C-alpha cells in the first residue's frame, strides 16, 4: 500500500478481544453484534489448531480485521469484518484478506483457506474475488424429517460394511474413485490429500463410526455414505455420499441414502441433513426424490497454496 500510515499486523494478545469484536461487527454495537462476538471468541478459545488474527490499521485506527482458524483436515476457516459494518473500510478489508490468507497457507500446514456466506451477501463475493479467492460452490443445505420409517432397498449383490469392518485403504479408495467426473465441488478435485478429507469428515459433527458404511460389490468398494450425529443430539448429517464412477447408473446412490435414513430413524433421530453443490444436478435430484427439502444456501470461496495451483 502506498500510504505510510497503513499497517497489516498480527494482533497482540492484549488486544485480541477488541480485534475479535471488529471481526464480528466492525464498530456496530447491540445484541446481535455481542452474540456474534461471543461466538467468535468461543471459536478462538476452543480451537484445536493454529489461529491467525490480524488487523489493518491506518493511522493507528482499525479499518478491518480477520481471523483464520485451523480445523481438522488442514482446513482454515476465514472470518472477517462485515464489509457493510460501521468503521470497516472495504478496500482495507480486501488488502487485509489478500495478505493474510496466503501468509497462513505459507506458514501453516493448511491445504486451503475457505469462507462461507449467504448468497444475498453479494459484496462478499466481490470482496473475496478481489482478494484472490476462487468460488468453490453454491451449497444447498437440505433436511429430511424422519417422522416415518424410510424405505430401504434390499440388494443381494451389495455387501455392507461399517467402520471397523473395512480398512482405511478401502475408504480412501472409494472416496477417490467417487471424485472421478463428479459434479460436486469440481474446483476441489486434486487439491487435497484423501487423509485430510477423511479427517475433515470425522470432525464434522460428532463422529459416529457405526454410521459410516461402504457398499461392496463383487468384493470391491463401490460407494460410501458417512453419517455423523449433530451436536444438538436431535439429528444426523450426511457428511459425505459418493459412488465410484464404475458403479454409477445402477441406483447405488439411492440405496446408500436409504441405508443412512433408515439407520438414523431406528436410532431415534428426528432428521437427516446434508449439503449438496447446486451444480450437481444428479445428486440434487436424488435428494429431492428421497424427500429432502431445501433449508438455506451458502456461497463458499477458497484459496489454495501456490504450489497447488
Can you describe what's shown?
By secondary structure, this protein is an alpha+beta fold. It has eight helices and twelve strands. The chain has helices at about 15-25, 30-45, 90-105, 120-130, 170-180, 195-200, 250-265, 280-290, and strands at about 5-10, 50-60, 60-70, 75-80, 110-115, 135-145, 160, 210-215, 220-230, 235-245, 270-275, 295-305. Strands 1-2-3-4-5-12-6-11-10-9-8-7 form a twelve-stranded mixed sheet, sandwiched between helices. Helix 1 (about 15-25) crosses helix 2. The longest helix is centred in the N-terminal third of the chain and has 18 residues, at about 90-105. The chain is elongated. The relative contact order is 0.15.
Percent range for β-strand residues: 25-35%
Strand order of the main beta sheet, please?
Answer: 1-2-3-4-5-12-6-11-10-9-8-7
Unreliable segments of 5+ consecutive residues: none
What is the element string, with H for helices and E for strands? EHHEEEHEHEEHHEEEHEHE
Offer a quick outline of the entry.
This protein is 31% helix and 31% strand. It is α+β, with helices and mostly antiparallel strands and 309 residues long.
List the helices and strands and how they pair.
Elements: E1 6-10, H1 16-25, H2 31-45, E2 51-58, E3 61-71, E4 75-80, H3 90-107, E5 112-117, H4 122-130, E6 134-145, E7 158-162, H5 168-179, H6 194-202, E8 212-217, E9 220-229, E10 235-243, H7 252-266, E11 271-277, H8 281-289, E12 293-303
Parallel strand pairs: 4-5, 10-11
Antiparallel strand pairs: 1-2, 2-3, 3-4, 5-12, 6-11, 6-12, 7-8, 8-9, 9-10
Helix pairs in contact: 1-2
Amino acid at each position: 500500500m502506498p500510504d505510510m500510515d497503513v499497517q497489516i499486523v498480527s494482533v497482540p494478545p492484549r488486544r485480541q478481544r477488541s480485534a475479535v469484536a471488529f471481526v464480528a461487527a466492525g464498530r456496530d454495537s447491540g445484541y446481535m453484534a455481542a452474540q456474534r462476538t461471543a461466538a467468535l471468541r468461543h471459536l478462538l478459545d476452543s480451537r484445536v489448531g493454529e489461529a491467525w488474527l490480524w488487523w489493518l490499521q491506518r493511522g493507528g485506527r482499525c479499518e478491518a480485521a480477520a481471523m483464520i482458524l485451523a480445523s481438522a483436515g488442514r482446513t482454515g476457516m476465514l472470518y472477517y469484518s462485515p464489509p457493510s459494518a460501521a468503521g470497516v473500510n472495504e478496500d482495507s478489508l480486501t488488502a487485509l484478506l489478500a495478505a493474510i490468507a496466503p501468509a497462513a497457507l505459507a506458514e501453516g500446514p493448511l491445504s486451503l483457506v475457505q469462507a462461507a456466506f449467504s448468497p444475498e451477501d453479494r459484496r462478499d463475493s466481490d470482496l473475496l474475488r478481489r482478494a484472490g479467492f476462487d468460488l468453490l460452490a453454491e451449497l444447498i443445505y437440505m433436511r429430511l424429517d424422519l417422522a416415518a420409517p424410510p424405505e430401504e432397498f434390499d440388494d443381494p449383490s451389495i455387501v455392507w460394511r461399517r467402520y471397523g469392518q473395512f480398512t482405511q485403504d478401502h475408504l480412501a479408495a472409494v472416496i477417490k474413485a467417487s471424485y472421478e467426473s463428479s459434479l460436486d465441488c469440481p474446483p476441489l478435485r486434486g487439491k487435497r490429500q484423501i487423509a485430510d478429507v477423511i479427517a475433515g469428515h470425522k470432525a464434522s459433527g460428532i463422529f459416529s463410526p457405526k454410521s459410516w458404511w461402504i457398499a461392496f460389490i463383487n468384493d470391491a468398494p463401490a460407494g460410501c455414505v458417512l453419517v455423523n450425529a449433530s451436536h444438538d443430539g436431535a439429528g444426523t448429517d450426511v457428511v459425505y455420499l459418493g459412488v465410484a464412477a464404475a458403479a454409477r447408473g445402477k441406483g447405488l446412490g439411492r440405496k446408500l441414502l436409504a441405508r443412512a435414513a433408515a439407520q438414523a430413524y431406528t436410532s431415534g433421530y428426528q432428521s437427516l441433513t446434508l449439503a449438496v453443490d447446486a451444480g450437481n444436478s444428479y445428486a440434487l435430484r436424488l435428494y429431492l426424490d428421497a424427500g429432502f427439502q431445501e433449508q438455506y444456501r451458502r456461497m463458499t470461496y477458497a484459496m489454495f497454496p501456490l504450489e497447488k495451483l
